[in-house]
Design goal:
- Chain A: Keywords: Dioxygenase, Oxidoreductase.
- Chain A: It comes from Pseudooceanicola antarcticus.
- Chain A: InterPro entries: Intradiol_dOase_C (IPR000627), Intradiol_dOase_core (IPR015889), Intradiol_RC_Dioxygenase (IPR050770), PCDO_beta_N (IPR024756), Protocat_dOase_b (IPR012785).
- The complex is a heterodimer.
- Chain A is mostly beta strands.
- Chain A has one domain: Sandwich (Protocatechuate 3,4-Dioxygenase, subunit A), CATH 2.60.130.10.
- Chain A is 4% helix and 24% strand.
- In chain A, a hairpin with an 8-residue loop joins strand 8 and strand 9.
- By secondary structure, chain B is mainly beta.
- Chain B has 1 helix and 12 strands, in the order αββββββββββββ.
- Chain B is globular, with a radius of gyration of 18 Å.
- In chain B, strands 1, 2, 3, 4, 7, 8, 9, 10 and 11 form a 9-stranded mixed β-sheet that branches. A two-stranded antiparallel ribbon of chain B has the order 5-6.
- The two termini of chain B are 32 Å apart.
- Classes of the chains: A mainly beta, B mainly beta.
- At the A-B interface, strand 1, helix 1, strand 3, strand 9 and strand 12 of A face helix 1, strand 2, strand 5, strand 7 and strand 8 of B.
- Strand 1 of chain A pairs parallel with strand 12 of chain B.
């Protein structure tokens, strides 16, 4: 098998800090000690693959997947679309993308969520798809509502969609959140604020994309995701030892 | 001014949050029927070659509380040390499993085949191990670690040998409790803190 080279070491500067007193739960769930850094091995460079056979016809349609097409969910209809790329700018084809979110009122279909906003009988709250050969993905969903959460006295989550992406290597595994352009709650959210660089946080804010919106049907938001890349050089196979 | 690089930067992580189960294990979260079953309930199928083992444990936060909401994923080689998707791999081993802490007790169980030693660049040999990724509310970027086995020869493993404080090596080694049974606890913070990886 061709050696694609090791994974490019993770640049932790783009990521949130693990320990952030503003996000209270992180205080007891962040390691005190430094991470052990090492060049990647086959354990991180290989990873699970999922075939299109995994998917049902409505898996990427959160408006219809809970009722199997019987009745649409309540809310502002949106298309969320974009590409999965690696740090070398190459598309990541045929990789699993999973999303989950609150309903239009800001309520999750979860036993632990007791917010006043009602459940929508026509909305479940999760979806999945596999990128095409060019790394593209699409979801049809409703825009999730903002909601309050127990942290400091009066914290609210901005509208957001959780997204899980696999890539082709276990070391590329990533979970992130998509925010919406123009939401004033982004600047007040302690979870968004765990990312200390404003320009990095901006990369999680999906712009309105009228070129993809369908008239009289749905708006569109674009969200590209970049996963770790591989450091391939002409010299890679000449490494002596580790 | 220098030339512009054309490399991209990785997308920032965000916590998986308290409702990660809705997206990743919806049947477990109570959203039965949205998919036929949750993804990757087992890393092996019947007929996988090698010793079938069961690893149980808990994930503790910095106060010593066993977290009830952790979600984990594992990735491993087959019994011959070949990664799934690679030539010669056991077709009955997918190598990937998604599993959760129990909602009441915090215990997780991973039932799999014991992996073999794996080969890397330059003739490097890694002792048998399972890679693990842990996410939950309050974890802002998924934590990577590994499960090694106390009844294997770990003396030449390149990762374990990089751990300066030797007592910390034990945090990555599953203890054998009976034939085919191991325990492996994960401590996110403080005394006995698990070695987490940046790899």
């Amino acid at each position: 098998m061709t050696d694609l080279g090791p994974l490019i070491p993770r640049n932790r500067e783009v990521h949130p800090v693990p320990y952030d007193p503003g996000y209270k739960t992180s205080i007891t769930r962040s390691p005190y000690l430094p991470l052990l850094s090492m060049e990647s091995t086959p354990s991180e460079e290989t990873g699970p693959r999922f075939g299109h056979g995994l998917l049902g016809a409505l898996d990427n349609n959160l408006i219809l997947n809970w009722t199997k097409g019987a009745a649409p969910a309540v809310g502002e209809r949106i298309l969320v679309h974009g590409r999965v790329l690696d740090e070398n700018g190459r598309p990541v084809p045929h990789t699993l993308v999973e999303i989950w979110q609150a309903n239009a009122g800001g309520r999750y279909r979860h036993v632990k969520d007791t917010y006043f906003a009602p459940l929508d009988p026509n909305f479940g709250g999760c979806g999945r798809t596999i990128t095409d050969e060019n790394g593209y993905y699409e979801f049809l969903t409703i825009r999730p509502g903002a909601y309050p959460w127990p942290n400091r006295g009066n914290d609210w989550r901005p509208m957001h969609i959780h997204m899980s992406v696999f890539g082709h290597s276990f070391g590329q595994r990533l979970i992130t959140q998509l925010y919406f352009e123009g939401d004033p709650l982004i600047d007040r959210c302690p979870i968004a604020a765990t990312i200390k660089s404003r320009s990095q946080l901006d990369r999680l804010v999906a712009p309105l994309d009228m070129a993809k919106a369908r008239p009289m049907d749905f708006l569109a938001y674009k969200f590209d995701v970049v996963l770790r890349g591989r450091r391939q050089t002409m010299f890679e196979n000449k490494l002596e030892g580790m | 001014m220098a030339q512009q690089l054309d490399t991209l930067q990785e997308t920032p992580s965000q916590t998986a949050g308290p409702y990660v189960h809705i997206g990743c294990v919806p049947t477990f979260a109570g959203l039965e029927g949205i998919y036929p079953e949750d993804l990757a309930l087992s890393p092996i199928e019947d007929g996988a070659k090698g010793e079938i083992i069961e690893i149980t444990g808990q994930v503790f936060d910095g106060t010593g509380w066993a977290m009830r909401d952790a979600m984990m994923e594992s990735w491993q080689a087959d019994a011959a040390g070949i990664y799934p998707g690679t030539d010669g791999a056991d077709p009955k081993v997918s190598g990937f499993c998604r599993f959760t802490a129990d909602k009441e007790t915090g215990f997780f169980t991973l039932r799999t085949v014991k992996p073999g030693a794996t080969k890397g660049r330059g003739g490097m040999v890694q002792a048998p191990h399972i890679s693990v990724w842990i996410v939950a509310r309050g974890i802002n970027i998924g934590l990577q670690t590994r499960i090694y086995f106390e009844d294997e020869d770990n003396s030449a493993d390149p990762l374990l040998n990089r751990i300066e404080q030797r007592p910390r090596v034990d945090t990555l080694i599953a203890k054998k409790t009976a034939e085919g049974k191991y325990t492996f606890d994960i401590r996110l913070q403080g005394e006995g803190e698990t070695v987490f990886l940046d790899i």
